[in-house]
Specification:
It contains 13 helices and 9 strands. Helix 8 links the parallel strand 8 and strand 9. It has a 9-stranded parallel sheet. It has 305 residues and is α/β, with parallel strands linked by helices.
């Protein structure tokens, strides 16, 4: 893309961003100390920044005050030069604006706003584009559209994403559907400077190949070095090596996403010496057999000795 003719914010979304989990203590309260400790370790890797209070952050299970506390703690703990992308999406446009302004006050650089979905079929392309236009106009920070059909049941089409991106404060899209042809079409249709992000390590390499500038990867929480290395190899033109590493990480990524979810991610973090902690109900913890499976996958993938 020709950044010199871009209508969009100069904030670059290039690189790898882990969507970090929110640590809770045994009483179910946000553990700010554990969050800061985890971020201190992640800061040692070549990550471009962090998504804080996204889907992996159990944001839908947290109050506004808890979200603000997590954003504020994260901002203080995140190393200089790394972005804080705040998950601010809500069902109503007005609440999304409120949360986005709150995140900006806490020091967030970018707002990640999931597509509203409760009213299902009423969330037409027209309704979604209008939602993002109003949000972007009211937001003091750039907006990143978040399309995640597996969770929402809404799959915003390539044309609608491109139209939303015509607003100068909508800087890009996190695309989690995994449809590579659609991702290529988004890049083709979008305004110069609109930045598409691959939303899963399952198709990170393929996403980069069709024009994604980076990835928001659950895998990067537990395998930051490997996630960054896929990106580095791709940018260096070493596609065979990048693809091989991508394939090797697929079982590891699957363990902390579709297979075992957030509970699996938190269990894996504990095995690696980070703070994982409990998930919030109605999510359930892993059983002993499931934990053993996660451990075996981490070992086989070379993530855990």
């Amino acid at each position: 893309m020709n950044q010199s003719t871009s209508l969009h914010s100069p904030v670059s979304l290039a690189g790898v961003f882990p969507p970090i989990p929110t640590p809770f203590d045994e009483k179910g309260k946000v553990d700010r100390g554990a969050l800061a400790d985890n971020l201190a370790r992640w800061n040692e890797y070549g990550l471009a920044g962090y998504v804080v209070m996204g889907s992996n952050g159990e944001s839908v299970l947290c109050s506004e005050e808890e979200k603000a506390a997590v954003w504020e703690t994260a901002r203080k703990a995140i190393a200089p030069g790394k972005l804080l992308i705040a998950g601010t999406g809500a069902e109503s446009t007005s609440e999304t604006i409120t949360l986005t302004r709150r995140a900006a006050e806490a020091g967030a650089d970018v707002a990640l706003a999931v597509t509203p979905h409760y009213f299902g079929g009423m969330m037409t392309s027209e309704a979604l584009v209008r939602h993002y236009e109003v949000l972007a106009h009211a937001s003091p920070i750039p907006v990143l559209v978040y399309n995640v059909p597996k969770i929402t049941g809404i799959d915003q089409d390539a044309g609608a994403n491109a139209r939303a991106g015509q607003h100068p404060n909508v800087i890009g899209l996190k695309e989690t559907g995994g449809n590579i042809a659609k991702m290529a079409d988004i890049v083709r249709l979008a305004e110069p400077g609109f930045q598409m992000i691959a939303g899963s390590a399952a198709f990170f390499f393929a996403g980069l190949a069709v024009g994604a500038v980076g990835g928001i990867l659950a895998l990067a929480n537990i395998a930051p070095a490997q996630s960054v290395e896929i990106y580095r190899l791709f940018k260096a033109g070493k596609w065979v090596d990048a693809a091989e590493l991508q394939r090797r990480m697929l079982p590891v990524n699957g363990a902390v996403t579709a297979r075992f979810g957030i509970a699996g991610l938190k269990a894996a973090l504990e095995m690696l010496g980070y703070y994982g902690g409990p998930v919030r109900m109605p999510l359930l913890e892993l059983g002993d057999e499931q934990r053993a499976e996660v451990r075996g996958i981490l070992v086989e993938g070379g993530v855990l000795d």
